[in-house]
Structure formats: structure tokens, C-alpha cells
Amino acid sequence: MSYSSVGFRVRARTRPVCQVFGSISSRSILPARPVSRTVTLFSPHSRTRQIVPVRNLHDRRLFASAVSSASNSSPSSSSSPSSIPPEGHGNGTRQNTPTPHLEGQALLSITNMVAYVENHKSRVLNHRGIPSEAQVEAALRACKVVADYIMDDSVRPQVSHMITELESTASTLLSIDAPQTPMSSDPSETSGTQISAQLRQMIDMISDAAYATLLYPPVFITPSLLQLYVDVQARLGKPESLPQIFHLYASKPMPREGSGSLRYVKQNPNKAANSINPKVIETALDAAIEAKNLDAAVGIIENSYKTQAFIRNKLLRQAVFPAGVFAATPLAAYALASTFSSFQQTMDSVTATNVAFAGILAYVGFTASMGVVALVTANDHMRRVTWAPGVPLRTRWLREEERAALDKVACAWGFREEWRQGEEEGADWDALREYIGQRGMALDRSELMKGMD
Hints:
Oligomer: single chain
Number of helices: 16
Strand order of the largest sheet: 1-2
Radius of gyration: 32 Å
Order of helices and strands: EEHEEHHHHHHHHEEHHHHEHHHE
Largest sheet: 2 strands, antiparallel
Structural class: mainly alpha
Number of strands: 8
């Protein structure tokens, strides 16, 4: 049978098993069998996608040949993602960030997804010297692309079909010479279990690849890389490694190149510049709560809100301006008192200035102190976790984000009905209550609960 419209000939003949395995392992663009009834094409010159229906075997072969010829003729995709040479080898230049065309090729099969992630990870781990931030970002971006695809509910049937096709092809080839075994009594249940197991393995592979990329000693973790890593793990629902990465963000030694070797400089974890962005912390905490991982949630709080770096950063961001205003208040009060003294004739100018200065300072100091006390002691925004009696006001203000995070965790793990709150039991809840008590806070104070005046 020949197809003149495409320009190739298909010969129907049998081949040995070794050649069958060789032909399957050499394919890097399309799987051995079609993935689904409709295939998404990514144009190399635009970000739009085209849905091409594949109806029968004849159309499938035409489509496979067209995609192969287009990928081979396109200058921007002359090779598959798994065959792109690592950066630093050769004289050519390439982009570090994944292009839409390469992303489209990588999402055509499970094998391509694995190769796509592993290839970008190997470029970082096999790099001689200190990898650039663009290389590390490309590796994490590849994990993000595949994670967004396999975790999307709209394409979940396609991913399951990919896994089914891969398993059926491998089982068929491996069972050519194997003895026949009896079929399972419930094939649909067995198939669903295998698909879910394969999908969990895929998720673990992507999570481990991202973790290994940032754990690599020559990689310096920047705020943008940390945010991208948190987005990947949050999308996969794998928050277990986030506390350790938060700890490494502030304490991981910085690599330095010199005299042909790498040396590492220890950094101060308590420096204000090593604090984590609150938005990144909230994303990580939401991921841990959604995954119902109490250890990860508490670990995220321990390595973010509780650190000295975050407290110092908060002082710089929120306390410098009020402190400057407080320091400038006596000067402004004295200037105002000097002006007021010129409008009276009952006493000399110096005495009038001193009296007015004392009166202005007394009014401003008393009013400001009352406002600070009212602001710090307000508990209307507290739901289940409140401060224990005797905690200093300055400590309450400095650690308010930590208390709010623990309050969020307590509300997520406890009963949502207000009339049932306080009746929770279990080892996790008792451990959370004890931990909150050790931090100078109280969980479900009876005098502050609704209806317990």
C-alpha cells in the first residue's frame, strides 16, 4: 500500500521482536498508537492550538507523517526535546525557556513527558560549574508545564488513555513468548487501579525532579526560583518538601567560582534579605492544607513566619516609617509651640513655648499610646487561635502572621460548624493544640468562643 500524498510507502511484513522494541524506543514525537480521537497541534510560529480529528487508521498514518515532516523541516524544532544538546556544548545558541512548540511535542505521550522533564533536569545536574538562573528556571518551568497538563481535569481522560495505550503496548510485546495467564475477574477495576498508580508515579517523578534541581549544591535559590518551585509542588499536591526548601532558601551556602574550583560561602539565615515573600508562604500553606498534611503545614510556618529573618524584614517594612514619625514628633511639637508662643502676651516667650511643648507632647503621646494598645489588643479577626494572657504587646505585633497562619490551620483541621468547634479529638488535633500552647497562644479559649460570654 502506498500513499502518494505524503510520499512514503508502508510495507506489511513481520519483524523480529528486537526490531519492534528498537523502533518503539527511537520514536520521540508520537506514541506507538494514537493518543486520542482528537490531537492538538502547536504551531511553531503562534501560541494557538488546532484540533485535528483522527477518524481511521488511514488518517492516523497521514497525520503522523505530517507531524514528523513538519517537525523535521521547522528550523525552530529541528530535534526533539530529548535530543537537544546541553547548553555549553557546541557553538550554537538556544533558548533556555521551553518554547510552545517543544511543549506541544512533549505532551504527546507519557514517554515524551518523562524525557522532557529529565532532559531539562540533567542539563542542570550535569552542568560544569554554577548553573545560571535561566537554566534552573527552565528545568522548573518544564516541571510546571507537565504538572499543569496532567493535573488538568479537562485532559485527565487523555492522560489516562496515554497510560492505557503505553501499558497495553508494553504488555503485548512482553507477552509474545510468555505463557497465557487467566484474566482478572474485574478488568475495569484493575485498569483504573493501574492508571491511578501510574499517574501517582508520574506525579512523584515530577516532584522529585524539581526537588533534585534545587537541592543540587551549586544551585543558588533565588526568590523567583522559590516561587516557581512552590507553584509546581502546589499544583502536584506534594507539599512535603516545602519546609526543607524554605530552610535551604535562607541557609544554603552560596556557590562561588574561583581558580577552577567551586567554594561555598555560608550565609546568615537571620538576615532580613533571606525572608520569604508572604504570598509564597500563603501559596505553600494552602497547598499543605489542601493536601491534608499537618506536618508540612506546621513545618512551613516554622521555616517562614517564625524565623528571625521574617521578623527583621517586617520591622524594616512596617516599623521604620512609624519610628521616624515618632522621632520627628518632638521637633515638630517644639516648632509648633514656638509659633503659638508668639500669639500670647500673658507670659514670656520661653515659658509659653515650654508650656505649649509639654501640652502637645502629652496629648500626642497619650492619644498614640491608646491607639497602639487598641490596635494590638484587637481580637475580632481571630477565630480559634488567640494570644495567651501575659504575652507582651510587641510580641503580639511581631508574631501576628504566625498566629494567623496557625489559626488558618486550626480552622482547616477542625469542624467547620461553629456549634461543634471545641469537640475535636485525635492525635493530630492534640498535637496541634499542644504546639499552639507552646507558642504562647491558646486554642479555643472558652471565654472568647461564641455564646460563652
